[in-house]
Amino acid sequence: MDLRLSTGPKALLSLLILITLELPAVQMAYNIGTGIADTTGPIAEIVFMGYAKIDQRGAGLHLRTFARSYIIDDSENRFVFVSVESAMIGHDVRAMVIRKLQEKYGDLYSEKNVMISATHTHSSPGGYNLYMLFDLTTFGFIKQSFSAIVNGIFVSIIRAHDSVVPGKLFVGHGEVLDANINRSPMAYLNNPQFERDKYNYDVDKTMTQLQFIAADGRPMGVINWFAVHPTSMNNTNRLVSSDNVGYAAVLFEKYINKDAPIGKGDFVAAFASSNLGDVSPNTRGPKCEFSGDECSSSYTCPGKNEMCFASGPGKNMFESTSIIAHKLFDGSMRICMIK
Length: 339
Ligand SMILES: *[C@@H]1O[C@H](CO)[C@@H](O)[C@H](O)[C@H]1NC(C)=O
Description:
InterPro entries: Ceramidase_alk, NEUT/ALK_ceramidase_N
Strand content: 25-35%
Largest sheet: 9 strands, mixed
GO cellular component, one term: extracellular region
Distance between the termini: 38 Å
Structural class: alpha+beta
Shape: globular
Number of strands: 16
GO molecular function, one term: N-acylsphingosine amidohydrolase activity
Strand order of the largest sheet: 1-7-6-5-2-9-11-12-13
Bound molecules: 2-acetamido-2-deoxy-beta-D-glucopyranose
Number of helices: 7
Enzyme class: hydrolase
EC number: 3.5.1.23
Protein backbone atom coordinates (compact mmCIF):
# COMPACT_ATOMS: atom_id res chain seq x y z
CA MET A 1 0.00 0.00 0.00
CA ASP A 2 3.00 2.29 -0.17
CA LEU A 3 2.11 4.81 -2.84
CA ARG A 4 2.95 7.88 -0.85
CA LEU A 5 5.39 9.14 -3.42
CA SER A 6 4.83 9.71 -7.07
CA THR A 7 7.68 11.15 -9.07
CA GLY A 8 9.94 11.06 -12.05
CA PRO A 9 13.26 9.33 -11.30
CA LYS A 10 15.31 12.37 -12.25
CA ALA A 11 13.45 14.65 -9.86
CA LEU A 12 13.90 12.16 -7.04
CA LEU A 13 17.59 11.96 -7.77
CA SER A 14 18.08 15.72 -7.60
CA LEU A 15 16.27 15.88 -4.28
CA LEU A 16 18.30 13.02 -2.83
CA ILE A 17 21.54 14.63 -3.96
CA LEU A 18 20.43 17.85 -2.30
CA ILE A 19 19.56 16.14 0.97
CA THR A 20 22.70 14.07 1.22
CA LEU A 21 24.93 17.13 0.85
CA GLU A 22 26.20 17.45 4.39
CA LEU A 23 27.58 20.94 3.95
CA PRO A 24 26.17 23.47 6.43
CA ALA A 25 25.40 25.78 3.55
CA VAL A 26 24.98 24.88 -0.05
CA GLN A 27 27.19 27.48 -1.64
CA MET A 28 25.43 27.59 -4.97
CA ALA A 29 22.75 30.21 -5.45
CA TYR A 30 19.32 29.07 -6.48
CA ASN A 31 16.03 30.59 -7.42
CA ILE A 32 13.53 29.36 -4.87
CA GLY A 33 9.81 29.69 -4.20
CA THR A 34 7.29 28.44 -1.64
CA GLY A 35 3.48 28.29 -1.64
CA ILE A 36 0.58 26.84 0.32
CA ALA A 37 -3.09 26.15 -0.47
CA ASP A 38 -6.03 24.39 1.15
CA THR A 39 -6.91 20.80 0.17
CA THR A 40 -9.47 20.00 2.88
CA GLY A 41 -12.39 18.79 0.73
CA PRO A 42 -15.61 17.28 2.08
CA ILE A 43 -15.60 17.06 5.90
CA ALA A 44 -18.84 15.09 6.23
CA GLU A 45 -20.05 11.66 5.11
CA ILE A 46 -16.92 10.55 3.24
CA VAL A 47 -14.95 7.58 4.62
CA PHE A 48 -11.40 8.45 5.64
CA MET A 49 -8.48 6.94 3.82
CA GLY A 50 -5.90 5.26 6.04
CA TYR A 51 -7.42 2.83 8.49
CA ALA A 52 -9.73 1.38 5.80
CA LYS A 53 -12.62 1.37 8.27
CA ILE A 54 -15.93 1.76 6.51
CA ASP A 55 -17.77 3.37 9.44
CA GLN A 56 -15.04 6.00 9.92
CA ARG A 57 -16.75 8.77 7.98
CA GLY A 58 -16.20 12.48 8.29
CA ALA A 59 -18.41 14.31 10.81
CA GLY A 60 -16.58 17.62 11.22
CA LEU A 61 -13.18 19.24 11.27
CA HIS A 62 -10.18 19.08 13.62
CA LEU A 63 -7.36 20.55 11.47
CA ARG A 64 -7.64 21.68 7.85
CA THR A 65 -5.35 19.96 5.34
CA PHE A 66 -2.96 21.81 3.02
CA ALA A 67 -0.62 21.30 0.08
CA ARG A 68 2.78 22.94 0.51
CA SER A 69 4.94 23.50 -2.56
CA TYR A 70 8.61 24.31 -3.02
CA ILE A 71 10.40 25.25 -6.21
CA ILE A 72 14.16 24.93 -6.61
CA ASP A 73 15.75 26.21 -9.79
CA ASP A 74 19.49 26.23 -10.50
CA SER A 75 18.98 28.11 -13.81
CA GLU A 76 19.33 24.85 -15.73
CA ASN A 77 16.75 22.66 -14.08
CA ARG A 78 13.60 23.45 -12.17
CA PHE A 79 12.28 21.08 -9.56
CA VAL A 80 8.98 21.11 -7.62
CA PHE A 81 8.40 19.27 -4.37
CA VAL A 82 4.89 19.16 -2.91
CA SER A 83 3.91 17.76 0.47
CA VAL A 84 0.16 17.24 0.71
CA GLU A 85 -1.78 16.32 3.83
CA SER A 86 -3.54 13.21 2.58
CA ALA A 87 -3.12 9.46 3.01
CA MET A 88 -1.33 8.87 -0.28
CA ILE A 89 -1.03 10.23 -3.79
CA GLY A 90 -1.74 8.19 -6.90
CA HIS A 91 -0.86 8.55 -10.52
CA ASP A 92 -4.09 10.25 -11.59
CA VAL A 93 -3.87 13.09 -9.06
CA ARG A 94 -0.39 13.89 -10.26
CA ALA A 95 -1.33 13.54 -13.93
CA MET A 96 -4.22 16.00 -13.48
CA VAL A 97 -2.01 18.50 -11.59
CA ILE A 98 0.56 18.33 -14.39
CA ARG A 99 -2.09 18.75 -17.05
CA LYS A 100 -3.36 21.92 -15.35
CA LEU A 101 0.20 23.22 -14.95
CA GLN A 102 0.91 22.64 -18.64
CA GLU A 103 -2.23 24.52 -19.67
CA LYS A 104 -0.90 27.48 -17.69
CA TYR A 105 2.88 27.28 -18.10
CA GLY A 106 3.55 25.18 -21.22
CA ASP A 107 6.22 22.53 -20.69
CA LEU A 108 7.95 24.23 -17.73
CA TYR A 109 6.41 21.62 -15.42
CA SER A 110 6.07 17.96 -16.38
CA GLU A 111 6.30 14.41 -15.03
CA LYS A 112 10.08 14.92 -15.07
CA ASN A 113 10.21 17.65 -12.41
CA VAL A 114 7.08 17.58 -10.24
CA MET A 115 7.25 15.36 -7.16
CA ILE A 116 4.16 14.97 -4.98
CA SER A 117 4.43 13.35 -1.57
CA ALA A 118 1.59 12.67 0.89
CA THR A 119 2.11 13.06 4.65
CA HIS A 120 0.06 9.88 5.17
CA THR A 121 -2.50 11.34 7.58
CA HIS A 122 -5.19 8.71 8.27
CA SER A 123 -7.93 11.30 8.90
CA SER A 124 -8.75 12.86 5.55
CA PRO A 125 -11.54 11.97 3.11
CA GLY A 126 -10.73 9.21 0.59
CA GLY A 127 -12.03 8.26 -2.83
CA TYR A 128 -9.56 10.26 -4.97
CA ASN A 129 -6.96 7.73 -6.07
CA LEU A 130 -8.74 5.94 -8.95
CA TYR A 131 -7.36 2.59 -7.87
CA MET A 132 -9.78 -0.19 -7.07
CA LEU A 133 -8.22 -1.16 -3.75
CA PHE A 134 -7.71 2.38 -2.47
CA ASP A 135 -11.19 3.56 -3.42
CA LEU A 136 -12.96 0.46 -2.11
CA THR A 137 -13.86 1.86 1.32
CA THR A 138 -15.55 4.89 -0.26
CA PHE A 139 -17.39 2.62 -2.74
CA GLY A 140 -15.70 4.36 -5.63
CA PHE A 141 -14.59 7.76 -6.83
CA ILE A 142 -15.43 10.90 -4.80
CA LYS A 143 -15.14 13.90 -7.06
CA GLN A 144 -15.10 16.45 -4.20
CA SER A 145 -12.07 14.75 -2.61
CA PHE A 146 -10.25 14.55 -5.94
CA SER A 147 -10.95 18.19 -6.90
CA ALA A 148 -9.96 19.58 -3.51
CA ILE A 149 -6.61 17.77 -3.59
CA VAL A 150 -5.83 18.50 -7.26
CA ASN A 151 -6.83 22.17 -7.02
CA GLY A 152 -5.03 22.68 -3.71
CA ILE A 153 -1.80 21.22 -5.09
CA PHE A 154 -2.16 23.23 -8.31
CA VAL A 155 -2.79 26.54 -6.49
CA SER A 156 0.09 25.93 -4.06
CA ILE A 157 2.44 25.41 -7.04
CA ILE A 158 1.15 28.63 -8.68
CA ARG A 159 1.85 30.49 -5.43
CA ALA A 160 5.32 28.96 -5.21
CA HIS A 161 5.92 29.88 -8.88
CA ASP A 162 4.87 33.49 -8.25
CA SER A 163 7.12 33.76 -5.20
CA VAL A 164 10.35 32.62 -6.90
CA VAL A 165 13.36 34.83 -5.97
CA PRO A 166 17.11 34.25 -5.66
CA GLY A 167 17.86 32.43 -2.43
CA LYS A 168 19.82 29.78 -0.60
CA LEU A 169 19.17 26.33 0.76
CA PHE A 170 20.50 24.98 4.04
CA VAL A 171 20.45 21.37 5.17
CA GLY A 172 20.41 20.31 8.82
CA HIS A 173 20.03 17.10 10.80
CA GLY A 174 19.12 16.44 14.42
CA GLU A 175 17.65 13.80 16.71
CA VAL A 176 14.07 13.98 17.96
CA LEU A 177 13.47 11.67 20.92
CA ASP A 178 10.21 10.43 22.48
CA ALA A 179 8.12 11.16 19.39
CA ASN A 180 8.08 7.72 17.71
CA ILE A 181 8.20 4.02 18.56
CA ASN A 182 8.46 0.81 16.56
CA ARG A 183 4.96 -0.59 16.16
CA SER A 184 6.34 -4.07 15.77
CA PRO A 185 9.43 -4.36 18.01
CA MET A 186 9.23 -8.15 18.07
CA ALA A 187 9.41 -8.29 14.27
CA TYR A 188 12.38 -5.89 14.40
CA LEU A 189 14.25 -8.42 16.55
CA ASN A 190 14.27 -10.78 13.55
CA ASN A 191 16.87 -8.51 11.95
CA PRO A 192 20.39 -9.95 12.30
CA GLN A 193 22.29 -8.83 15.39
CA PHE A 194 25.16 -7.30 13.35
CA GLU A 195 22.65 -5.07 11.63
CA ARG A 196 20.87 -4.04 14.84
CA ASP A 197 24.28 -3.27 16.37
CA LYS A 198 24.65 -0.40 13.90
CA TYR A 199 21.79 1.57 15.46
CA ASN A 200 20.98 3.00 18.87
CA TYR A 201 17.22 2.62 18.45
CA ASP A 202 14.76 0.30 16.72
CA VAL A 203 13.36 3.26 14.73
CA ASP A 204 15.01 6.22 13.02
CA LYS A 205 15.20 9.28 15.33
CA THR A 206 16.90 11.62 12.86
CA MET A 207 15.07 14.61 11.43
CA THR A 208 16.46 16.07 8.20
CA GLN A 209 15.53 19.62 7.34
CA LEU A 210 15.90 21.79 4.26
CA GLN A 211 15.58 25.55 4.81
CA PHE A 212 14.69 28.07 2.14
CA ILE A 213 16.06 31.57 2.72
CA ALA A 214 15.76 34.42 0.21
CA ALA A 215 18.92 36.31 -0.80
CA ASP A 216 17.70 39.28 1.28
CA GLY A 217 17.59 37.05 4.39
CA ARG A 218 13.81 36.58 4.49
CA PRO A 219 12.85 33.07 5.63
CA MET A 220 10.62 31.48 2.96
CA GLY A 221 10.09 27.99 4.22
CA VAL A 222 11.33 24.65 5.47
CA ILE A 223 10.72 21.02 4.57
CA ASN A 224 11.62 18.41 7.09
CA TRP A 225 11.48 14.64 7.07
CA PHE A 226 11.01 12.60 10.24
CA ALA A 227 9.82 9.00 10.42
CA VAL A 228 6.44 8.90 12.15
CA HIS A 229 2.95 7.83 11.14
CA PRO A 230 0.35 10.63 11.35
CA THR A 231 -1.88 8.33 13.42
CA SER A 232 -2.12 10.16 16.72
CA MET A 233 -5.79 10.54 15.74
CA ASN A 234 -7.00 6.95 15.99
CA ASN A 235 -9.53 4.92 14.02
CA THR A 236 -12.48 6.14 16.09
CA ASN A 237 -11.85 9.75 15.03
CA ARG A 238 -14.41 11.27 12.68
CA LEU A 239 -13.00 14.79 12.41
CA VAL A 240 -10.95 15.56 9.31
CA SER A 241 -7.39 16.20 10.50
CA SER A 242 -3.85 16.69 9.24
CA ASP A 243 -2.80 14.94 12.50
CA ASN A 244 0.51 15.37 14.35
CA VAL A 245 2.67 16.49 11.40
CA GLY A 246 -0.01 18.92 10.18
CA TYR A 247 -0.30 20.43 13.65
CA ALA A 248 3.52 20.78 13.78
CA ALA A 249 3.47 22.57 10.41
CA VAL A 250 0.90 25.05 11.73
CA LEU A 251 3.00 25.67 14.87
CA PHE A 252 6.06 26.49 12.73
CA GLU A 253 4.13 28.70 10.29
CA LYS A 254 2.44 30.62 13.13
CA TYR A 255 5.82 31.16 14.76
CA ILE A 256 7.14 32.95 11.65
CA ASN A 257 3.94 34.35 10.09
CA LYS A 258 2.68 35.66 13.48
CA ASP A 259 -0.90 36.88 13.09
CA ALA A 260 -1.55 35.74 9.51
CA PRO A 261 -4.46 33.28 9.41
CA ILE A 262 -3.45 29.61 9.14
CA GLY A 263 -2.59 28.75 5.54
CA LYS A 264 -2.38 32.42 4.46
CA GLY A 265 1.12 33.46 5.50
CA ASP A 266 4.15 33.64 3.21
CA PHE A 267 6.34 31.27 5.23
CA VAL A 268 5.57 27.61 4.44
CA ALA A 269 6.65 24.70 6.67
CA ALA A 270 6.11 21.11 5.51
CA PHE A 271 6.52 18.15 7.84
CA ALA A 272 6.76 15.59 5.07
CA SER A 273 6.61 11.80 5.12
CA SER A 274 9.71 9.64 5.10
CA ASN A 275 10.68 6.13 6.27
CA LEU A 276 7.62 5.89 8.52
CA GLY A 277 6.60 2.34 7.57
CA ASP A 278 6.56 0.62 10.97
CA VAL A 279 6.79 3.78 13.06
CA SER A 280 4.00 4.83 15.40
CA PRO A 281 3.49 8.09 17.34
CA ASN A 282 1.51 6.26 20.06
CA THR A 283 4.43 6.21 22.46
CA ARG A 284 2.65 4.52 25.38
CA GLY A 285 2.69 1.40 23.19
CA PRO A 286 0.11 -1.36 22.77
CA LYS A 287 -2.08 -2.11 25.81
CA CYS A 288 -5.32 -4.01 26.39
CA GLU A 289 -8.28 -1.68 26.04
CA PHE A 290 -9.96 -1.92 29.47
CA SER A 291 -7.53 -3.67 31.79
CA GLY A 292 -4.51 -1.67 30.61
CA ASP A 293 -2.51 -4.93 30.67
CA GLU A 294 0.34 -5.66 28.27
CA CYS A 295 -0.85 -7.33 25.06
CA SER A 296 0.38 -10.78 24.06
CA SER A 297 3.24 -11.31 21.61
CA SER A 298 0.68 -11.45 18.79
CA TYR A 299 -0.81 -8.09 19.91
CA THR A 300 -4.03 -9.56 21.25
CA CYS A 301 -5.58 -9.84 24.72
CA PRO A 302 -6.22 -13.61 24.89
CA GLY A 303 -9.07 -14.81 27.04
CA LYS A 304 -10.52 -11.34 27.34
CA ASN A 305 -13.14 -9.58 25.29
CA GLU A 306 -11.08 -6.44 24.63
CA MET A 307 -8.92 -4.93 21.91
CA CYS A 308 -5.18 -4.33 21.92
CA PHE A 309 -4.15 -0.94 20.57
CA ALA A 310 -1.45 1.64 21.10
CA SER A 311 -2.12 5.14 22.42
CA GLY A 312 -0.45 8.05 24.16
CA PRO A 313 1.47 10.04 25.10
CA GLY A 314 -1.59 12.20 25.96
CA LYS A 315 -4.76 11.35 27.86
CA ASN A 316 -6.78 11.31 24.61
CA MET A 317 -6.01 11.48 20.89
CA PHE A 318 -6.31 15.29 20.71
CA GLU A 319 -3.73 15.75 23.44
CA SER A 320 -1.49 13.08 21.88
CA THR A 321 -1.64 14.88 18.51
CA SER A 322 -0.64 18.12 20.20
CA ILE A 323 2.20 16.59 22.27
CA ILE A 324 3.77 14.82 19.27
CA ALA A 325 3.34 18.00 17.17
CA HIS A 326 5.18 20.07 19.78
CA LYS A 327 8.02 17.53 19.94
CA LEU A 328 8.36 17.65 16.14
CA PHE A 329 8.23 21.45 16.13
CA ASP A 330 10.81 21.73 18.93
CA GLY A 331 13.06 19.27 17.05
CA SER A 332 12.79 21.27 13.84
CA MET A 333 13.60 24.52 15.68
CA ARG A 334 16.73 23.02 17.21
CA ILE A 335 18.20 22.35 13.75
CA CYS A 336 16.94 25.59 12.27
CA MET A 337 18.87 28.75 11.49
CA ILE A 338 15.65 30.72 11.19
CA LYS A 339 14.91 31.98 14.68
C1 LIG B 1 -9.05 6.40 20.47
O1 LIG B 1 -8.83 7.48 21.37
C2 LIG B 1 -9.87 7.69 22.31
C3 LIG B 1 -9.49 8.89 23.18
O2 LIG B 1 -9.34 10.07 22.43
C4 LIG B 1 -10.09 6.45 23.16
O3 LIG B 1 -11.22 6.64 24.00
C5 LIG B 1 -10.30 5.22 22.27
O4 LIG B 1 -10.35 4.06 23.08
C6 LIG B 1 -9.18 5.09 21.25
N1 LIG B 1 -9.48 3.95 20.38
C7 LIG B 1 -8.58 3.28 19.66
C8 LIG B 1 -9.07 2.09 18.88
O5 LIG B 1 -7.39 3.60 19.61
